[in-house]
From TrEMBL:
<feature type="active site" description="Proton acceptor; specific for L-alanine">
    <location>
        <position position="254"/>
    </location>
</feature>
<feature type="active site" description="Proton acceptor; specific for D-alanine">
    <location>
        <position position="34"/>
    </location>
</feature>
<dbReference type="InterPro" id="IPR011079">
    <property type="entry name" value="Ala_racemase_C"/>
</dbReference>
<dbReference type="Pfam" id="PF01168">
    <property type="entry name" value="Ala_racemase_N"/>
</dbReference>
<comment type="similarity">
    <text>Belongs to the alanine racemase family.</text>
</comment>
<feature type="binding site">
    <location>
        <position position="130"/>
    </location>
    <ligand>
        <name>substrate</name>
    </ligand>
</feature>
<keyword id="KW-0663">Pyridoxal phosphate</keyword>
<comment type="function">
    <text>Catalyzes the interconversion of L-alanine and D-alanine. May also act on other amino acids.</text>
</comment>
<feature type="binding site">
    <location>
        <position position="302"/>
    </location>
    <ligand>
        <name>substrate</name>
    </ligand>
</feature>
<dbReference type="GO" id="GO:0008784">
    <property type="term" value="F:alanine racemase activity"/>
</dbReference>
<dbReference type="InterPro" id="IPR001608">
    <property type="entry name" value="Ala_racemase_N"/>
</dbReference>
<dbReference type="InterPro" id="IPR009006">
    <property type="entry name" value="Ala_racemase/Decarboxylase_C"/>
</dbReference>
<dbReference type="InterPro" id="IPR029066">
    <property type="entry name" value="PLP-binding_barrel"/>
</dbReference>
<keyword id="KW-0413">Isomerase</keyword>
<feature type="modified residue" description="N6-(pyridoxal phosphate)lysine">
    <location>
        <position position="34"/>
    </location>
</feature>
<feature type="domain" description="Alanine racemase C-terminal">
    <location>
        <begin position="233"/>
        <end position="362"/>
    </location>
</feature>
<dbReference type="InterPro" id="IPR000821">
    <property type="entry name" value="Ala_racemase"/>
</dbReference>
Length: 366
């Protein structure tokens, strides 16, 4: 069998979720498991967390229904609400919660007669200018929803554009808008994503919505004492399948991007962009070979990548190679670090791992 496997540590997931809760003891934290739990497998992650979490959050009804089909009973909120008025029947049948970000969604909801009132998170555009009602529109929409028999457990919800940044100016501006609305309407809030959960207690509301931190990625520009306790959930591991001895000046891979600066030993690893490993990885992007850091040498191919193992004499065919996450010997290569070498963020690497890399689950409930 091809040796590439995405190992998913469900105990680490539960540890990270509990850390998020400890950061915000006055809030309830939904576990954000959209996009197949950021590539980790939504159903397995939901099963591992269900005993601890008061609710899950997904992007759309398809994601919610597959959780219900898998037996998940906990409340599930649709972060983008309905995409079509017809979905309300399913929302009602499956006891889903919805966010409402647009006028047409309000009209659809108020024209529908659910069997039981639907919990609603009213989305405010507090400055990100993506989804939500403008602050000036919120009070009138809020009042209509408060008065509507279709609606229960109404909250104000918003999303931060820069909660991860050290410069607090954008965050503070959004927070001023939201605090003003919360005071005026006496509205309970749901605001904090992972960086706000970790770094901005002022944003902790009735509910928080941590996502990426649950998977062990540190969303802050500068790590702190809490983020250093996060544990990687996905460890993307493969093996060396071939070795090459090169003379000084010989080149490796497509376009010959890497040229040996000295007599070198190159390992070929079974992992490539056809598995979701980022083709933008530059020479020097780290991997762990037998737990030791080694640099990628040459462009990533579809099924393989090449690594300079000159300084790891014991590297051999079959040696373990960790693309990110934890090695068998306990060494860790943070996905955030790999992302920086690929000029991207951990979110794209984690959600980008393709089904060709099978997930293997360890820990809680498996
Ligand atoms: C509306 C909303 N809430 C919460 C989250 C979770 O954010 P994070 O993964 O940064 O914690 C996201 C993620 O994109 C989101 O779109």
């Amino acid at each position: 069998m091809r040796p590439l496997v995405a190992h998913i540590d469900l105990d680490a997931l539960r540890h990270n979720y509990r850390l998020a809760c400890r950061c915000a003891p006055q809030s309830r934290s939904v576990a954000v498991i959209k996009a197949d739990a950021y590539g980790h497998g939504a159903l397995a992650c939901a099963r591992a967390l269900e005993a601890d979490v008061p609710a899950f959050a997904v992007a759309c009804i398809e994601e919610a229904l597959s959780l219900r089909e898998g037996g998940i009973q906990a409340p599930i909120v649709l972060l983008e609400g309905i995409f079509d008025a017809d979905e309300l029947a399913l929302v009602d049948e499956h006891r889903l919660w919805i966010s409402v970000h647009s006028a047409w969604q309000v009209e659809a909801l108020l024209s529908y007669s659910p069997r039981q009132p639907i919990p609603v998170w009213l989305k405010v555009d507090s400055g990100m200018h993506r989804l939500g009602f403008s602050p000036e529109q919120v009070a009138s929409v809020w009042q209509r929803l408060v008065d509507a028999p279709q609606v229960t457990a109404l909250h104000l919800m918003s999303h931060f554009a820069s909660a991860d940044a050290q410069d607090p100016s954008v965050f503070n501006q959004q927070m001023r808008v939201l605090q003003g609305l919360a005071d005026e309407l006496k509205a309970p809030l749901c605001l904090a994503n992972s960086p706000a959960t970790l770094a901005w207690p002022v944003a902790h509301g009735d509910w928080n919505r941590p996502g990426v931190m649950l998977y062990g990625s540190d969303p802050l520009e500068v790590a702190n004492d809490v983020t250093r306790q996060l544990r990687p959930v996905m460890s993307l591991r493969s093996k060396i399948i071939a070795l090459r001895e090169l003379d000084t000046g010989e080149q490796v891979g497509y376009g010959g991007r890497w040229k040996a600066p000295r007599p070198s030993k190159i390992a070929v690893v079974a992992a490539g962009y056809g598995d979701g490993y980022d083709r933008h990885a530059v020479d020097g992007t780290p991997v762990l070979v037998n737990g030791q850091r080694c640099p990628i040498a040459g462009k990533v191919s579809m099924d393989m990548l090449t690594v300079d193992v000159t300084d790891v004499p014991e590297a051999a065919i079959g040696s373990e190679v960790v693309l990110w996450g934890a090695a068998s010997n306990g060494a860790v290569l943070p996905v955030d670090e790999v992302a920086r070498y690929c000029a991207t963020i951990s979110y794209t690497l984690l959600t980008g791992v393709l089904p060709r890399a099978p997930r293997r689950y360890h820990g809680a409930n498996v």
